């Protein structure tokens, strides 16, 4: 039996749209931070048939089964009992598929002695869920062509940012990210503009991380997030992930910044707000978001490590 841990990551320059070829390849370069305060724990052991348990309940997951079958095209992987749990809301815009596939390939690699290095683990994680490629590493992580395997931009020790997650709903989303981004690619009138701006946003985000330029990172990350949500909103049918509380939190973050706090927001395919802070602002930001109407929970997180085997 083998146990692996992985953390979700949140993108500061987002992935939303795939290339039209095999391999689950993003259409645009993207970068993220790995969150130590949220964890997926995945246990793998040999079984007589594949059996998957998610958060204590038996689950049928065609995406996971398809990924396992693909893995077996290359490696000798026996039937597996996979038991995985998240200490945060699942499929609710907190990147549970990123930490999930990162923990899973890490556990299977060790359990079945596949001999994969980090780059290869990232490659296999990406085939399950593109954002999962990034959770193989900790700190600041890029996913870029031509390899589309995670690349470390900086460690969490080099720039120890903090993240305050304002949870506004625990419900699973009704449209998956994969389905949503394909809808945006096919129907949003802004998709071409999204592709056009991607390399510039990625370069600006990478430079800001390299320079530890918080204001620079704030500017590119907030605008890139709002570009992605513009794509979502202009998809047909629309993809509307925000609640009134999400909007209130974004307004609150802008107001806190006007008051001198070092904070910016980002939002993924769900209603939760992630406020990224310099450490000196995290207490004030957490207190302010906790008081914002509609916020049901606050999760605080430093940046953390990549996926790893713990037994
Ligand atoms: C990201 N998201 O860059 C963006 C921002 C959500 C919003 O990557 O189809 O679960 O499995 O590759 O990785 C979520 O999409 O999609 C995602 P698939 P994934 O973090």
Structure explained in plain terms:
The protein is an alpha+beta fold. It has 2 domains: 2-157, Ribosomal Protein S5, domain 2, CATH 3.30.230.10; 162-302, 2-Layer Sandwich (Alpha-Beta Plaits), CATH 3.30.70. 39% of the residues lie in helices and 22% in strands. The chain contains 9 helices and 14 strands. It has helices at residues 62-74, 96-111, 118-128, 132-135, 177-187, 191-211, 214-233, 244-258, 282-290, and strands at residues 2-6, 9-13, 30-34, 40-46, 51-54, 57-58, 80-86, 140-143, 150-154, 162-167, 263-267, 273-277, 297-302, 308-309. The chain has a 6-stranded mixed β-sheet, with helices on one face. Strands 2-3-8-9 form a 4-stranded antiparallel β-sheet. β8 and β9 (150-154) form a beta hairpin. Bound molecules: ligand 2P0. Residues 11, 14-16, 24, 30, 97, 129-131, 177-178, 268-269 line the site of ligand 2P0. Ligand 2P0 is lined by residues 11, 14-16, 24, 30, 97, 129-131, 177-178, 268-269.
Keywords, please?
2 domains, Ribosomal Protein S5, domain 2, alpha+beta, 39% helix, 311 residues, four-stranded antiparallel beta sheet, Alpha-Beta Plaits, globular, six-stranded mixed beta sheet, 14 strands, binds ligand 2P0
């Amino acid at each position: 039996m083998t146990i692996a841990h992985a953390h979700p990551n949140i993108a500061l320059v987002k992935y939303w749209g795939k290339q039209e070829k095999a391999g689950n390849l993003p259409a645009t370069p993207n970068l993220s931070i790995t969150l130590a305060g949220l964890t997926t724990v995945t246990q793998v052991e040999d079984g007589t048939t594949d059996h998957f348990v998610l958060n204590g309940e038996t689950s049928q997951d065609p995406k996971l089964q398809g990924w396992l079958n693909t893995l077996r095209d290359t490696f000798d992987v026996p039937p597996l009992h996979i038991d995985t749990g998240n200490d945060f809301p699942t499929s609710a815009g907190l990147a549970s598929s990123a930490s999930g596939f990162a923990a899973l390939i890490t556990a299977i690699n060790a359990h079945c002695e596949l001999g994969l290095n980090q780059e290869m683990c990232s490659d296999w994680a990406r085939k399950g869920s593109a954002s999962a490629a990034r959770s193989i590493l900790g700190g600041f992580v890029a996913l870029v062509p031509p390899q589309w395997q995670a690349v470390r931009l900086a460690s969490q020790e080099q720039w120890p940012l903090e993240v305050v997650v304002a949870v506004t709903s625990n419900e699973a989303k009704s449209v998956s990210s994969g389905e949503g981004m394909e809808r945006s690619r096919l129907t949003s009138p802004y998709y071409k503009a999204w592709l056009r701006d991607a390399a510039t946003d990625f370069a600006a985000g990478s430079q800001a991380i390299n320079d530890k330029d918080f204001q620079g990172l704030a500017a590119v990350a907030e605008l890139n997030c709002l570009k992605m949500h513009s794509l979502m909103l202009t998809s047909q049918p629309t993809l509307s992930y925000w609640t009134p509380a999400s909007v209130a939190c974004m307004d609150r973050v802008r107001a806190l910044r006007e008051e001198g706090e070092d904070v910016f927001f980002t939002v993924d395919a769900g209603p939760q707000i992630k406020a990224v802070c310099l450490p000196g602002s995290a207490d004030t930001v957490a207190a302010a978001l906790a008081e914002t109407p509609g916020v049901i929970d606050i999760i605080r997180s430093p940046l953390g490590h990549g996926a790893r085997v713990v037994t």
